[in-house]
Design goal:
Residues 55-126 form the Transcription factor NikR nickel binding C-terminal domain. Residues 3-42 form the Ribbon-helix-helix protein CopG domain. This protein has 133 residues and is α+β, with helices and mostly antiparallel strands. It has helices spanning 10-23, 28-46, 66-78, 106-117, and strands spanning 52-62, 83-90, 95-105, 122-131. The chain has two domains: 10-46; 52-131, ACT-like. Chain A, domain 2 (Alpha-Beta Plaits). It has a four-stranded antiparallel β-sheet with strand order 2-3-1-4. It is globular and about 45 Å long. The relative contact order is 0.20.
Length: 133
């Protein structure tokens, strides 16, 4: 196994140590390896451009930001053949949280993610995509 060194801000170290404790990791290296493995796995899935994949795309934005809400809905409607369903939640008093259930070729779903990321005012865009065999 190769050894690498990296510098992290104290805040990130504190966050890592909190996750270690909550999730039962024995050390930082174990947590970082697991995180990198998950990122590499997700990256490989997203790069299968012509293959069918499915999963969720999550978006968080301000509850009073009508322009962002409209742009997200527009993206949803432009991709209605890939977006199988949407769950809209008033997450808390400040935020809305939309969860898109999606299915299609990786290149098309990645395009949806990129469209959402270009919307100024979103606070979070996340994905959990899996291959459909």
């Amino acid at each position: 196994m190769s050894v690498i060194s990296l510098s992290l801000p104290n805040k990130l170290i504190n966050d890592l140590e909190e996750i270690m404790e909550e999730e039962g990791y024995n050390n930082r290296s174990e947590l970082i390896r697991d995180t990198i493995r998950n990122h590499v796995k997700q990256h490989k899935i997203e790069k299968r451009e012509e293959k069918e994949i499915g999963g969720i795309i999550s978006v968080m934005y301000g509850i009073n930001d009508q322009k962002v809400s409209e742009q997200i809905q527009e993206t949803q409607h432009q991709n209605e053949n890939k977006v199988k369903g949407v769950l809209h939640l008033h997450y808390d008093e400040k935020n809305c949280f939309d969860i898109f259930l999606v299915k299609g070729k990786a290149k098309h779903l990645n395009k949806i993610v990129h469209q959402l990321k270009r919307i100024t005012g979103t606070k979070h865009i996340g994905t959990d995509l899996i291959p459909i065999e």
